[in-house]
Amino acid sequence: MAETTDLAAWTCPLPLRDSPTIVMGHGGGGAMSAELVEHLFLPAYSDAATGELTDSAVLPAGPARIAFSTDSYVVKPLFFPGGSIGDLAVNGTVNDLAMSGAVPLYLSTAFILEEGTALDELGMVATALGDAARAAGVRLVTGDTKVVDAGHGDGIFVNTAGVGLVADGVDIRPSRARPGDAVLVSGDIGVHGVAVLSCREGLEFGTAVESDTAPLHDLVATALATGADLHVLRDPTRGGLAASLNEIAAAAGVGVEIAERDVPVPPEVADACSILGLDPLYSANEGKLVAVVPPDDADRVLDAMRAHPRGTRAARIGTVVADHAGMVVARTGLGASRVVDLPPGEQLPRIC
Question: Which intervals hold domain PurM-like C-terminal (predicted)?
Fold first, then answer.
């Protein structure tokens, strides 16, 4: 029998010591997720773990550099307006690779299935996954399937791992953000979270909201082709734009200031969030990116993104500053300022 884990040996602040079990907030991509990684996983892994805490790791491979990433998908429901767990599992991992500037090449696919899941439902998920891989130009090269007892899963969970190549001279990572850098987003935010919420809860907002799930590597390639020195790229998924900006600020030891009126939020998302008491800055996205670039490169990167089908609504929303290191501050439409904290969990769990 394994020894009982000594919780007191962890270097862990609240909430882990006060909660001896995993709660939904630990999977939300916010402060609780960060604490779980920092105070449980990293001490447990010790020197077996290496590298920055990014969505994909860039590793040497002879004369080349490869990016490697893995992600698991537990979205509920399996099918939602604009997508499904199948295409999400491809696009999410492709985008994690793209955020390091890599060209995605290969994916693995692993399915965890609950006993009793309908084969036609699994077939639709697998078809969507295959279609998304073809659309993204990646190959599915290996995989695995496991089945758990009825009542011990939730239909279908999917894990994908991906490998891509990083070109010489490309150095994109959160710690490269510098004071004076411009903060850009590639389009409307908050769409995926509201789309899943509307489907899950049977809500109607007068206008259909569809997920923005999409691969972004071509958009990244377009930005790189401008010759700009892209400092940071992030895809604001769990925890939304707020979580991504806080992660960048913390990693680089800088502050970030944004203007709320410059953040592109579609009316239907703003209305839905207003009705439900949610903040669009914390709503998940699955087809948008945040770019931090030197100020002299901002206009050409923005023009290039707007010329791409996935970036027509790209906007400059803020600036990296030396003040209030590790903190994100938003200027409201009334001229006041508010701190945009790292969310403790996720406004809506299981959105990816």
Answer: 178-325
What is the rounded average pLDDT for all residues in the chain?
A: 89
Cα–Cα distance list, 82 to 34, 64, 250, 283, 285 (Å): 30, 37, 33, 16, 12
Rounded Cα distance, 126 and 151, in Å:
22
CATH class of the domain whose range is 174-339: alpha beta
Q: Domain ranges in the chain?
A: 10-50, 54-166, 174-339
Q: Write the single-letter amino acid at 7.
A: L
The predicted structure's pLDDT at residue 43: 84
Same fold: 54-166 with 174-339: no
If pLDDT is split at 50, 70 and 90, which confidence band does 51 have? low
Domain 54-166 has CATH 3.40.50.300: no
Q: Say if residues 317 and 271 touch (Cβ distance below 8 Å).
A: no
Q: For the chain, what percent of residues have pLDDT higher than 90? A: 71
Taking alpha carbons only, the member of 79, 96, 105 closest to residue 165 is 105
- According to DSSP, residue 168 is labeled T
Nearest to 221 by CA among 208, 211, 230, 231: 230
Q: 15: pLDDT confidence band, cut at 50, 70 and 90?
A: very low
What DSSP string describes 27-79? GSSSHHHHHHIIIIIHHHHGGG--S-S-SSEEEEETTEEEEEEEEEE--SSSE
HSE (CB half, 13 Å, CA atoms) of 191?
23
**Cβ atoms of 200 and 275 closer than 8 Å:** no
- Which pLDDT tens digit goes with each residue over 167-223? 999 999 999 999 999 999 999 999 999 999 888 877 776 677 899 999 999 999 999
